[in-house]
Amino acid sequence: RAKAMPGNSWLRYSRDFKEAVRQQISLEAEFRSALRTDELEVYYQPKLELATGRVRSVEALVRWPSPKRGMLLPNDFIPMAESSGMIVPMGYWVIEQVCKDLAILKRMGHGNLTCAVNLSFRQFHDRKLAETVFRIIYNADIATDNFEFELTETAMMLDTEFTIRSLIELRKLGLRFALDDFGTGYASFNNLRRLPISTVKIDQSFIRSVSEVAEDATLVEGMINLSHGLGLNVVAEGVETRSQLEFLHRIGCDEAQGFIIAPALPFEALCSFLDAAASASSDALVFGRRG
Ligand code: C2E
Ligand code: MG
Ligand code: MG
Ligand code: MG
Fold first, then answer.
1. How far away, in angstroms, is 8 Cα from ligand 3 center?
2. Nearest Cα to Cα of residue 133 among 100, 101, 91, 161
3. Which residues of the chain have pLDDT under 70?
4. Parallel, antiparallel, or unpaired for β 255-256 and 233-236?
5. Looking at this predicted complex, what is its ipTM?
6. Euclidean distance between CA atoms 17 and 252, whole angstroms
7. Is the Cβ atom of 181 under 6 angstroms away from ligand 1?
8. Pick from 77, 177, 235, 269: CA 20 to 30 A from residue 58's CA?
9. 209-232: b or e for each residue (b if 16 or more CB lie within 10 Å)?
């Protein structure tokens, strides 16, 4: 068998493999130090409440402006953080940062704003998750009402029993959950009924074509009606065009999030955005933007 692989291609494979391992180790080491030195940043993407044209909630999205590698997005480092276990301390760092920012927003008169924080399945491997999350929020003197956590179906369904127990524990403490990327997992509709969630976020893949493909529009309308029937709040993700926004408004979707409203913003830019949104009329906010 060994003969089937010419010597130099084996050597190349071996060298590439070693190089990949070295890269991974150095990314991990840089990330560990970035976490320790507060090099990560939390950006915030506004969600627009369609019935009122107000922004009542935002989603926290982590960024890593690495001095060496440039601005890194979650897809560049979350998989490594998950496989190395560093997602656990990173997750707590994000919640702490969100608490600090919410305290500033409160002083600016935006005390009713809700912030959603993403949780990955790997964070549930920490048996003290519920306890730690609650302690951070409590110590920061932030109301649990100001928080929401986003989990994907896959995250909620892995290690089901323990995960659901943690979710229920957090729910009892007044924390709410949203089902992220809805429609991309499995057994979707059954989960809506079983999981302790209050919001569903319809994945961008369904939103993309609502204004062109009639079947997709029907599907999204069905997802919204079904969710409403179960008493759930509905957010559309990845809304990029005005016609998508108008469609979602017309069929009664509760909130929209996407580039048509704003991308994820650094905290300072979020503050300006919220101040401008508070003084603009709802019409200007929903329909006065360029698509
Ligand atoms: P997600 O929670 O589904 O977040 C939505 C993603 O879609 C974000 O990507 C956002 O920037 C992007 N997005 C928003 N509007 C639009 C749009 O109109 N068009 C397009 N094409 N994209 C849009 P981002 O920030 O790169 O985050 C990717 C994923 O990384 C998130 O998906 C979430 O699963 C994960 N993530 C982000 N921050 C955290 C975190 O603090 N902790 C954990 N555990 N995961 C995180
Ligand atoms: Mg999310
Ligand atoms: Mg999502
Ligand atoms: Mg996603």
1. 44
2. 91
3. 1-6, 159-160, 187-188, 281-291
4. parallel
5. 0.98
6. 52
7. yes
8. 77
9. ebbeeeebbebbbebbebbeeeeb
